[in-house]
Sequence to fold (261 residues):
Amino acid sequence: MNNKPELVKLIDTTLCTACRGCQVACKQWNELPGLKTKQLGTYQNPPDLQWNTWTLIRFQEYENKHGNFQWIFRKDGCMHCTDAACVKVCPSGSLYYTPMKTVGIHRDKCIGCKECVAACPFHIPKYDSKTDKVYKCDLCYSRIRESHAPACVKSCPTGALTIGNKDAMIKKAYDRVKKLGGDANVYGDKYVNGTHVIYILQFKPEVYDELPVNPKVPASVMIWKDLLKPLSLLGAGGVLGGAFFHYMIHGPKVPDDQNGG
Fold:
C-alpha cells in the first residue's frame, strides 16, 4: 500500500536571485561531472541542460512594459509530468512513476533509443553517446523517499524553491500570484494533466526562453503507447519495439555528440 504523499516542487521565480546554489547542489548530490564550456557573453552557464547538467538557471534580459530592462531568472529541469510522455514511450521500463507521482529513472534499464528525448514537450531528457544512456532529474528520489528535501530545495537561500503536498503547494502558488498581481501566473498545474514541478511566473509564459506556452504530449506518443509499447511485455520485444519506433520516426540510429561523447 502506498502511503507516500503526492509531491509538488514549487519554483517562485520572483524570489530567485540566480545564485545557482541549486545548480551546484544538484551536481554534488548526483555526483555529476563538470562540463567544459566557452564564454558566450552571458551569465548562463552551461548554455543548456546537458546529460550531466540536470538543473540550469536561465538568465534572460527582458524589456518590461515601462521600457526598462530587467533580469529574469528561471530554474529549468524536469517537470515530472502526471501524464509523462517519456514514461509512455519508454520501451524498457527505464522511466517510471514513483510512489510520490514523480518521474524516476532506472538508468541500468535504458537502451539508448532516445524516444523520451523526442517525446518530451519540455525538451528535458538528454542523451550521452559515450554511455548510450539518457539522463534527467529524478527529483532526488533517493532523498524524497526518505522524507528529505531535494538537494536543490535544500540549498536555496531565498525560499524560491519549496516542496510539499500537491494541494498545499498549488494553493500556496495561487495565493502568491494573487498577492503579486499584474501578469503573475501559475504555470504547470494545468498542462499534461498537471506537472509535479510548478512555477510562479512574474510574466506571461511566452516571455520566458525555452518555456513552452502550451505543452502537449505528441500524437506520435499515443501511437507508440497504444500500438507498440505492449511489445515490451514480451521481454526482448521492448528493445525491438523501441528500435522499430525509432526507425519509423527518425530513421537509423546514429551517434549523438551534442550532449557528450
Remarks:
- The mean pLDDT is 89.
- Residues 86 and 116 are 4 Å apart (CA to CA).
- The two ends are 42 Å apart (CA to CA).
